[in-house]
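Reply to dn_fold:

You asked what the input looked like. This is it:
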Amino acid sequence: MTTNPVTATITKKTFGKMSDGREVFQYTLSNKNNISVGVINYGGIITSIVVPDRNGKFEDIALGFDTLEDYKAYSPYFGAIIGRYGNRIGNGRFTIDGTEYHVAQNNNGQHLHGGLKGFDKVYWTIEPFDSDEGAALKLTYLSPDGEEGYPGNLSVEVIYLLTDGNEFKILISATTDKKTIVNLTTHSYFNLLGNAKRDILDHQIQLFADQFVPVSSTLIPTGKLESVGNTPFDFRTPHTIGEGIDSTHEQVQLGLGYDHTWVTGDVGVKKKIAVAYEPTTGRELTVYSTEPGVQFYTGNFLNGAKGKNGVVYPKRYGFCLEPQHFPDSPNKADFPTVILKPGERFHTETVYKFSTR
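and this is what came back:
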């Protein structure tokens, strides 16, 4: 199947079956430069991102698994759509118009990434999507009222689009029939070395943010924003990940490395928020987003699981740049709101641009 007969192609193959017999498919988006992105409809997972290094060698820069069974058995959210609420909600509680809602405390007493069966574990409807920009897929899911404790029937649409300009665009929108909270993102782990040859500590990161969101020992925000100045969180100019990852700074110690949100600017305004660069391969990843924050996570909890092609993923073998609203926003009045009302549309756009230098 083809969306653009000249450049963009989409191929499809069987990837496995759900326990109820529904078939899971893997779609591969390709552009004229032979860059490709693999996607399955279980969790909307991005299974592969194959890009060249500066010498034209193509390798996979996304962590993941070869089989559906491995994704179902263990996955630290590799490549998945995250919802209804990405990141943490303190004590698994939030209040809307005087009604307190309780959601799963699935992470050290806190709510994480949508609960026990978040959007990363559901079956998405998936189909090719016509776009003049390149090869595209549309994924849809209706989250029923009360699923994982959240109010409202939430209708979610995700567009994955690979352009000939080597941009992978992710457009997420949602509507509800009852006032609810929404914080949707995706959770790819990157290793620009390709095929996860070693850890990501020599990668250079630049984050266009003057502030970050400090957390408590439970990784729930304190409610304040702090300047990155004179801290290991200052990536306004490029630094290697390893430079400050074992710092004695309290926040680094609490996160066992970097596992924090940086403040990237106004909601709804698309801006460049991050650049990652790997010097030996020349691979560069530039991130643009309409979100007010980006979670920079350095794979601190990877446990040595065996991934694609038998490659083992120990601690710090991948990093995430997840554009999103701040953690625990429903309980922090000063944070940008995550409330979605009937008649409104949640919309977020993220662009991952691949290049070399």
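The chain is about 5% helix and 40% strand.
Hope that clears it up.
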